Amino acid sequence: MRRLRRTPLIRELVREVTVSKSDLIQPLFVEEGLSKNAPISSMPGQTRFLLSSLEKEASDLKDRGVRSILLFGIPSRKDDDGSSAHDPEGIVQRSIETLKEQLGDEIVIGTDVCLCQYTSHGHCGVVRDGLVENDETLKRLAETAVSHAKAGADLVAPSAMIDGQVTAIREALDDNGFRDTGTLICSETLILILRTVSGGSLLQAPVRRPANLPDGLLQPGNGHA
Ligand SMILES: [Zn+2]
After folding, report:
1. I want to staple 208 with a disulfide (CB 3.0 to 4.6 A). Which of 8, 17, 126, 215 is the partner?
2. Where do the domains of the chain lie?
């Protein structure tokens, strides 16, 4: 193997993985009720966008070769059950519709599917008697994913750290006629970082313990540990 690493040209010759702009997905944060776009101080160069600014940003990205985005919504209305997450008039749903109307299939639109930025308590799901209610939360997440698909999302990205979420969302999409809408499995850690630093969530999610190897090996959100 050492011989294959000897010079830059040889290394390039035998390289198996290449990353191009078309492999990248740009997270875009869209916030309801902003008066103007707001820089995210903890993520230099990143911005919380008004819905009206989103199309220009997505177009600029497309022109620079980044043709996939992942939308994170920050709603103006939060309640105990995170109901604005699956509102057909919600910030993410309206953003998808606007982008699809203006850019069609020139970009791939993925959406973060989670409740914690939509709940008044900041937990990643429906809370009953002080605990996150897993099955009720699955229903909400499934409704949210279907509402994103209805608005035109190409991919939905479950990230709620709720056991069984991927299966629940996939089944709901299929049952509602969205067999072609993809599910994008995100790293929980990545999503946690993005959501925390963007200021969209209080982050009181039941985070997996990195010291437990089986937790880390389970497909995020689809485990039954
Ligand atoms: Zn969450």
Report:
1. 215
2. 22-222
What are the tens digits of pLDDT across the range 14-23? Answer: 999 888 999 9
Strand-pair category, 108-113 with 155-158: parallel
pLDDT band at 43 (very low <50, low <70, confident <90, very high): confident
Tell me the per-residue pLDDT of 148-178, one tens digit each, with 9 for 90 and over: 999 999 999 998 888 899 999 999 999 999 9
CB count in 10 Å sphere of residue 101: 10
Question: How close is the Cα of 25 to the center of ligand 1, in Å?
Answer: 20
Q: What's the CATH number of domain 22-222, 3.40.50.720, 3.20.20.70, 3.40.640.10, 3.40.109.10? A: 3.20.20.70
CA of 191 to the centre of ligand 1 (A): 9
Burial class (CB in 10 A: 0-12, 13-18, 19+), 130: exposed
How remote is the CA of residue 119 from the centroid of ligand 1, in Å?
9
Report in angstroms the alpha-carbon separations of 205 from 43, 187, 188. Answer: 21, 14, 11
To the nearest 10°, report the CA torsion of 93, 104, 173, 129: -20
What's the CA-to-centroid distance between 30 and ligand 1, angstroms? 16
